[in-house]
From TrEMBL:
InterPro entries: ChsH2_C, ChsH2_Znr, NA-bd_OB-fold, Thioester_dehydratase-like. It comes from Microbacterium sp. LWS13-1.2. Gene3D superfamilies: 6.10.30.10. This is OB-fold domain-containing protein. Pfam families: OB_ChsH2_C (PF01796), zf-ChsH2 (PF12172).
Length: 137
């Protein structure tokens, strides 16, 4: 549990925040062209269909890029924060925080395997990612 700014759900993002609160993060999929869609919206950005369905993600992702924020806003309890773009296995990119790893470049390899976790913040639950455990561990 951390403190800090909490995103305000809109009608389009409310199902997303409900899914993270249930710890089953879901994104939209287009029923016409099959595209995975993030961020939430009312129609498919590829084919403009409004025939969309929410489906839980696998939770697997890879690290696409990151910045280490050494001076987060004072409202954050944490001293340092890794702000990252991750590629979900579903094929969409999401801005998130990386947790469970030292905020140093040597610990963060682009393309490294990540897995979904959740961080309670106020009355929301934010999706965060941590390094994936190896199969053998
Ligand atoms: Zn579509």
């Amino acid at each position: 549990m951390t403190t800090g700014p909490v995103p305000k759900p809109t009608p389009e993002t409310l199902p997303f925040w409900e899914s993270t609160r249930a710890r089953a993060m879901s994104i939209q999929h287009c029923l016409d062209c099959g595209a995975a869609i993030f961020y939430p919206r009312s129609y498919c950005p590829k084919c403009t269909s409004s025939d969309l369905e929410w489906r839980p993600v696998s939770g697997r992702a890879t690290l696409a890029s990151y910045v280490i924020n050494r001076r987060p806003l004072p409202v954050f309890e944490v001293e340092q924060q890794i702000i990252a773009l991750v590629n979900l296995e579903e094929g969409v990119r999401m801005m998130t925080n990386i947790v469970g790893v030292e905020p140093v470049p040597t610990a963060l390899q682009l393309g490294m395997a990540l897995e979904l976790d959740y961080d309670e913040r106020g009355d929301q639950v934010l999706p965060v990612f941590r390094p994936a455990l190896k199969e053998s561990e």
